[in-house]
Amino acid sequence: MKKLWGGRFKKEADQRLKEFSYSFLVDGELLPAELRVNRAYAEMLARVKLITPKERNALLKGLDGIEKAWKPGDVCRLHEAYEDVHTFIQQELERRAGSVGKKIHTARSRNDLVVTSTLVYLRDVLEALTAKIQGVQRALVGCAAKEPDAVIPGFTHLRKAQPVLLAHHLLAYVEMLQDDLGRLGDARRRMNALPLGSGSIAGSSLPVDRAFLAKRLGFEKVSPNSMATVSDRAFAAEILSGLAILWMHLSRLAEDFVLWNSEPFGFVELDDAFATGSSLMPQKKNPDVFELVRGRSGVVFGQLMSILTVQKGLPLSYNRDLQEDKPGLFDALRKTRVALEVLEGAISTCSFNEDAMAHAVRDDGLYATDVLEYLVRKGAAFAEAHEIVGKVVRYAAEENRAMRHLSLADWKKFSKRFGADVFGLFDAAKSVAAKKTLGSTNPALVNKEIRRWKTLLKKTS
Question: In whole angstroms, how large is the CA radius of gyration of the chain?
């Protein structure tokens, strides 16, 4: 197939070089976006009288024909024949529109074209990804709303700490995902400068109307420096950074569900449609969904490091190294979309075991902080109360008795401030209800948050 370059060369490129450098298998994904860019460019060329209205119409008709004829899987069939998506479109356009097809590339380079097409593509993908993240948020809020009164042990250092509402725990991830949306939204807003018209490095002496192109393609402005425009892939690094942080949160969420699904916890039961079995052990029902999310987070982290490394030593301006910006980025976006879809399904269909959760909060150690604050309310200094309760905990462990089973006389050995009302502290529902601070696990506050999130997410559905 004819290339977009070659007049300078006497020899055809070696087949090994073609196999090494061709990128259509990856950048073929840009085809719909690039057709949009080309339509705008054809209109601009006619506007500045670099082509006639008749030629513009022929180009637009040819571009429409390419889009209509394109089928899923074509890139797999054609990738060995074309260097990249730009070459494919150029050759198809010349075949459909005739010699006027050669004019579509007037005053531009693949350098500014690929950045433009990539940004147009990414804006759409990030918008779709926003909806997927909100789907997981809705699933988490739905679980919280179904179990508004369930109390589980909260953990620090993976050791039982204090009782918290299950809903409060689930909403923690809703908050994290909201921050992730903000980071990806910031990245999307920064992709608002039109690259097209920068040429390969220095711009063009031809009357390219960049302001028209920016408006036509939905960019807020034109890029101010042609060299930065064609050679900087900070937008790819920023998106991958946002995705990496998102995956860090998804991995933590997955780990919690893996633990909750295990026999020592038994808090959650996965729907059969979102669990797998063992080829040897018939009894197994495994949380592979969550384990795969946890594992694939490492792949996305690696893709972030890859794009940073690709760019770290490049002199200005464009270098072919930058072709490596898309494989990892596109793969990360695909993995993220699929992971969010399957997480939404797994979370929205799971069920929680109230008996297991109730049993888990019978551990008296969970209420040590409640006893400490009880003493503070009775007039003890915080540090003094902390030491007293620590001694009670140690005494109960040495006596092999639960704190709630100590006698009042035992309690008074440690402080005269203890009264019979201390025994009422060992209650999960009372513990969470006693919390007063904003953002705490207090049921009234958590229910208010559930309602707030339902309203917010309903607006975005």
Answer: 30
